[in-house]
Design a protein that fits this description.
Order of helices and strands: HHHHHHHHHH
CATH superfamily of the domain at 1-77: NADH-ubiquinone/plastoquinone oxidoreductase chain 6, subunit NuoJ
CATH topology of the domain at 1-77: Four Helix Bundle (Hemerythrin (Met), subunit A)
CATH architecture of the domain at 1-77: Up-down Bundle
Strand content: under 5%
Structural class: mainly alpha
Radius of gyration: 30 Å
Number of strands: 0
Largest sheet: none
Length: 200
């Protein structure tokens, strides 16, 4: 049953990945990429990596792909211009794809990978997330904390670069905008009515 599900999900994954680069409509390509992520998550579940599967669905499908869909639907792209070089670069793309597939088959056929047995099934009480958290916060706690500090410094640097004062840049003061009164902007002028000149 697991072999059947693996081949089924792999077939769906290959078809959806091919649709991402071949369909003409950009929204359909983005939806095909969503299917790719979901099918990849199903393959992770078959490998008993539930945490990676949930992370793939929550982060990529729930956040990244929603942003992709918004960008694709809001930007009016001319697909005709984008696909003008498709046939031009098709032989190079096929060559790269064949080379990658050959490398994967050679790696899987080597003695180190070819004789690899399937992972032993775990009991029902096994918790993948608890095991991952235990290893992450015991054996790899210092690299994990170091990576978090580096990311924090990167976020602070990005914010500092964004809010720095640039010469010639106009800024708005929200406090002054909110405190604006009608008397400061509008002045009523009382003008006498002009008499119409009689026609000759």
């Amino acid at each position: 049953m697991e072999s059947f599900l693996f081949y089924l999900f792999s077939t769906i994954l290959l078809v959806a990945a091919t649709a991402v680069i071949t369909v003409r409509h950009t929204v359909r390509a983005a939806l095909s990429l969503v299917l790719v992520f979901f099918t990849s998550a199903a393959l992770w579940v078959l490998l008993e990596a539930e945490f990676l599967a949930v992370t793939l669905v929550v982060v990529y499908v729930g956040a990244v792909m929603v942003l992709f869909l918004f960008v694709v639907m809001m930007i009016d792209t001319n697909t005709t211009v984008l696909r003008e070089g498709f046939t031009k670069y098709l032989p190079l793309g096929v060559l790269v794809a064949v080379t990658m597939a050959a490398e994967m088959f050679l790696a899987l056929g080597s003695p180190g990978f070819g004789g690899m047995a399937a992972p032993a099934p775990h009991p029902a009480s096994y918790n993948n997330v608890a095991e991952l958290g235990s290893i992450l916060y015991t054996q790899y706690v210092y690299p994990f904390e170091l990576a978090s500090v580096i990311l924090l410094v990167a976020i602070i640097a990005a914010i500092a670069l964004t809010f720095r004062r640039r010469p010639g840049t106009k800024y708005q003061d929200p406090a002054r905008q909110v405190s604006v009164r009608r008397a400061d902007c509008v002045r009523l002028v009382q003008m006498p009515a002009a008499r119409k000149t009689p026609a000759p």
